[in-house]
Structures are given as structure tokens and as C-alpha cells.
Specification:
25% of the residues lie in helices and 28% in strands. The protein starts with a helix and ends with a helix. By secondary structure, the protein is α+β, with helices and mostly antiparallel strands. It has two domains: 102 residues, no CATH class; 132 residues, no CATH class. A three-stranded antiparallel sheet has the order 6-5-14, with no helix packed on it. The protein has a three-stranded antiparallel sheet with strand order 11-12-13, with no helix packed on it. The protein is elongated and about 100 Å long. The mean pLDDT is 87. Helix 1 runs antiparallel to helix 2. The protein contains two helices and 18 strands.
């Protein structure tokens, strides 16, 4: 069997992997606070008997695109967007601390403050739990103020403060659940310089047009590799016929 078949096979399979990354980005083009995954191709030299004249292709996911998404005004008091750099701390399903830019908050049945994905939002001393209230306001520093049931209109109480952190992009790694975590596994300290904008949400940073163009280009690459495999098969059959004639 011609070894070139393996080259075209890896080219097709790695192209499919890159398509999966871009397809996931496109699927999350409307997900609040989503950060797109990056994909890049790398050539891998094939070593062995003979001259090293062949290379395999390899698709890698080198990291995450940390470009900020655009802000959309909603007017909802439970919607917040991080103003500039920074992240909102949440408690992941495994109990670890994770970070998100999705500020579409909601209230659970027991008063717990949750991110749009249903994970508890962390405050000064763990997950934030709110009493029954008539009105709620989230300040720029993450302070949550409510007017509890039965209180006068001018009587508000500060319940907790959302934990806001500002790690560098190099400190973060994206998990399979779409949440960011610190690479060394430790928790971040709150950063008072991080600010929120109430009544706004941050859109996904996925550029749908660019992602679609990439998908089209990778489809062409996949078709080219499949055609290359067919050509190799035709050459092999032609070689076999020549040997039969002799």
C-alpha cells in the first residue's frame, strides 16, 4: 500500500477535527459571554526508512480567543456585564471555583443567585443567597442591594458582593464545560478594580462570517484529501495492471 494514503488520511481526519472546533464556535455564536476556541494546523515530519520527505498534518487547539464581545442593553436588573477585564466567579459542578463572563443571572427556588448555566455565583463567603425582595440592584463593584418584602422604599440592605477576579489570559485554561479555571488549580483573590455594568449582557465573541469562511475552506480541504486518496487508489490499481501484463 502506498504510504501516501496515510498522509491523505491524516489530512482528512485532522480537517474534521478543526471543523468540529469551528462548528462548536458557530453553535455558541449567540451564547452570552462565550469565548471562541482557536484552531491551528501544524506539519509533523515523518521519520523512518528512506528520506524524510513526507509530513503528517496535525490540528491543535492552542488556546482561547479572549477578545471581548459586544455589549447588549437589556434593562434587566439581573443582567450584568463585566466592564473591561475581569471575570465572575462561580462554583462548578465539581465544587471548584471557575470563571465566566456570562452575566445573565437568575434566582433559584431557594434564593440562590445563579449564572445563566445554573451554577451558583460566588460572593464574599461562598455562594450568594438572597432573601425575598421587592427590588434588587447590583452595583458596579458587584455589591448586591435589595429592598426586602415589607420594607419602605428607601430602606435597602447590602446582602453580599459578587466575587470578581482579574487573572491574566495566560493564567486561564478553558475546560470541557466551557468555564475558565486557573491553570495551577488555585482560587483567585477578589479584585476591587473589576467593575460591572448593570442591565447589560456581553455577547459571544464569535464572528459568524469568519467562522463560516473557515468552515467552507476546511470543507474544500477535506474534499481535496478524499480525492487524493482516490487518486492513490487509482495509481495502485494501474500499477497492479502493469505487473499483470509483465
Amino acid at each position: 500500500m502506498d504510504k501516501a494514503l496515510y498522509l491523505s488520511m491524516t489530512g482528512a481526519s485532522q480537517t474534521m477535527r478543526a471543523q468540529a472546533i469551528h462548528a462548536n464556535n458557530m453553535a455558541n455564536a449567540s451564547t452570552t459571554g462565550f469565548r471562541a476556541d482557536l484552531a491551528q494546523a501544524r506539519s509533523m515530519q515523518v521519520y523512518g526508512a528512506g528520506m524524510p520527505s513526507r509530513v503528517y498534518s496535525m490540528t491543535e487547539n492552542p488556546g482561547t480567543d479572549f477578545t471581548h464581545g459586544s455589549l447588549q442593553q437589556t434593562g434587566n436588573s439581573l443582567d450584568v456585564a463585566v466592564n473591561g477585564e475581569g471575570w465572575i466567579a462561580v462554583q462548578a459542578d465539581d465544587g471548584s471555583e471557575a470563571y465566566t463572563r456570562a452575566g445573565n443571572l437568575k434566582i433559584g427556588v431557594f434564593g440562590e443567585l445563579m449564572a445563566g448555566n445554573g451554577l451558583p455565583v460566588l460572593g464574599n463567603a461562598g455562594p450568594v443567597v438572597l432573601p425575598q425582595y421587592e427590588s434588587l440592584e447590583i452595583g458596579q463593584d458587584g455589591t448586591i442591594s435589595v429592598r426586602e418584602l415589607g420594607q419602605a422604599a428607601d430602606v435597602t440592605a447590602n446582602i453580599d458582593r459578587i466575587k470578581l477576579v482579574s487573572p491574566t489570559d495566560a493564567e486561564l485554561i478553558k475546560g470541557a464545560d466551557g468555564l475558565m479555571r486557573r491553570r495551577d488549580g488555585t482560587d483567585m483573590l477578589p479584585d476591587a478594580a473589576v467593575q460591572l455594568i448593570s442591565g447589560y449582557l456581553e455577547n459571544s465573541n464569535v464572528n459568524v462570517v469568519d467562522a463560516m469562511v473557515e468552515m467552507i475552506g476546511m470543507t474544500r480541504n477535506y474534499e481535496m484529501n478524499v480525492k487524493f486518496m482516490q487518486t492513490i487508489q487509482e495509481n495502485s490499481e494501474a500499477s497492479a495492471r502493469l505487473l499483470q501484463i509483465q
